[in-house]
Amino acid sequence: EVLGPAKQKEYGEMALAQMRNYGYTLEDPLLAGWLQGVGDRLGAASDKPDQAYTLFLLKDRQINAFATLGGYVAVNAGLVLAANREDEVAAVLSHEIAHVTQSHVLRAVERAQRDSVPILLAMLGAIAVAQASNSPSVNNGAMAAMATAQGLMIQRQINYTRDNESEADRIGIHTLARSGYDPSAMADFFEKLQTIIRTNQGGERERTPDYLQTHPVTLSRISESRQRAVQLKAANTFTPTDRASDNPLLPTSLRIGNALGRGDSGQFPWVRERLRVLSADTPDAAMREYERLARAGKLTDAQRYGLALSRLQGGHASPAAVELAPLLDAHPGNVWLTLALAQAEGRSGKSAAADARFEGLIDRMPGNRAVALTYAGILDERNTRAAGQRAMAVLRPLLANAANDPVFQQTFARSSEIAGDPVRAGEAYAEAAYLNGRPEQALVQLNTLKKRNDVDYYARSRIDSRIAAITPTVLELRRQGIRDEDLDRR
Q1: For the chain, how many helices (H) and strands (E)?
Q2: Using CA atoms, how far apart are residues 91 and 63, in angstroms rounded to an integer?
Q3: pLDDT for 243 beyond 50
Q4: How far apart are CA 276 and CA 264, in angstroms?
């Protein structure tokens, strides 16, 4: 009753746009595809499978994750790096998705509204009684009444939060199991967090992670999660011997596989190392991190991929290609390695080999966002009209579903620009600005674009439509006194 679904989605979109504006998000097509895939799998198995979930990564290496309105779920890089397997990340996500399905944010708002009036009246009554007293400690009594009321409100909110956490654990672990992940992963990750609490000694770098401040881990919480996991495994009805004969539309010989046995996607080792590189302060910092890992023991293949990627990010494409080629031989068909090697070849002057590798991926995985955006990015780096036109052709199949994708809009804008289509480029640049939390900047760009002589009827209609959609947002921000700082400096 507090907010409808459309308004919740609007608030979630605004929160994500502002985090992009301040540079908090980590925008990588490969990592985003993996995370959204895990989220979609959990969402489909949740109590609200029709709810749309948008998952995104934050660069921060502190262990944290949170859900907000509209099904938006944020995950810090540090949480993924702290996990040993995909199931543990899925356990945290299932917990956050449960916060969404149970409407905990809205319920908290409703409870605060209900509590505030009676507690405020009780506080005023206590103060009135104290003021009417002739006691010399009247002022102390009034202060005590105020402190008691405030403490009661805070305690009730803490209790409610603990109830939310318990409910999210209970529902989340069922979602985890239904989606095919190991339900024991929730207790495993809680134990890991408790170990972190014990080892932290104070300093800024060793302080208790934000996630533990909002999601306190106790022995009872761990034991309850462990007990639920055992019960779920014992009561699992989707065994290999189960038959689907209860459904007359299915053959009686059909056997249903074990839901708990699906496991993770197999991508997690590559995910963690790519995230280690992209969340590091600099490529050199990432390389030093791998040097420390190498001193502790032989690097795994995934860690060798991370080291090569850090060199590629640092501008050392040829050495990166040399390191990636034998890894791809050992893991043929691996998309993470193939894309990295194609990038390295493209940046080390081996354009033909890079294009052949990219084109093979396009044929094998048509419409794949990570493949298309990575290939288009390499083509755009060549800065030729032909390369821009090919990049536009590679990206065009994704255009219909890219309305809320700032990475796509930025890449498509650059491709259109070097391909000789300035109007399309201008539209995409404005869209990227809007999605990155700069609506006023987007509006200025669209109004400027509209004045061009080469804007045809269809493009003008699209531009007018976006101006009409963005203007109310800009006017509301101005009403609140919020202006785009970059525009104000011009």
Answers
A1: 22, 3
A2: 14
A3: no
A4: 20
